[in-house]
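Pasting as-is:
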Amino acid sequence: MKTCVITGGNRGLGYECARALAREKDWTVVIACRDPRAGQAAVSRLHKLNANTNIAALKLDLASLASVNAFIASLQAGNLPPLGALVCNAGLQIVSGTKWTEDGFEMTFGVNHLGHYLLVHRLLESLIPPARILFVSSGTHDPALKTSMPAPEYRDARSLAFPNEIGGGDPEQIGGKRYTTSKLANIFTTYELARRLEARGIQGITVNAFDPGMMPGTGLARDHPLPVRLAWNYILPLLTLLRRSARPVEVSGAALARLVSDPELANTTGKFFSGTDMVPSSAESYDRDKAKELWETSAELVGLAQPL
């Protein structure tokens, strides 16, 4: 038996991934989320649904580097099976104006990228091959897909962590761009980590990125105005019947769990999946110079003296 950590596993995509994995006897599932009560409630629901009782919750606030380090200490101190998978799923989209993490980073970039970046680095030595790392990205990172979201704008990691607020602008457009850029950063990180593991001869740890598709009814729209939240939760779910890019959260959760456990994917690394399909990511996402800059600057921002 091995342990799988799922960030944001208390709701939405993360919860459905946990639910799918909990059906398998080979996994202990750790739900990592910032609200311990929400985590325990998710564990209770999963216990009622599954014979597998190897499910636990630990506090993790990705907007705090101290919380990331505390989570890792708690995980390593727990009496758990060896770590075999890490699903970097938690994410947010802020459209009501700039917010900041505990460490002074712009919140979207801090949570969606930097918190996960530190978490992955600190847990690399704990992963016991064969092991898998998954980054939940989004099709919105690719302007060619015409998702109606603003196109990402990646200049450098430091300007994303500390954006220049001069000039203002529409908070919804700014927030949307920050979100899509953070999802591009997830793919940069996926590809760069896969390359660095290979370059150092580290075998048995795979790294892939995942696009769950548009999943109306999840908590992603919680920072939007009430009319948008109502449409997201009650009207847009109908699109799952009409649009191929829209998927029920249960379907996407099962597809994400497959990337964790399917034996056929044991040697698949440095790839991008949309649902169950391996597909190309955006043209920009293959820019190695940007990926390298993101990697090295992120290490400086989170205080890693010797990143992989």
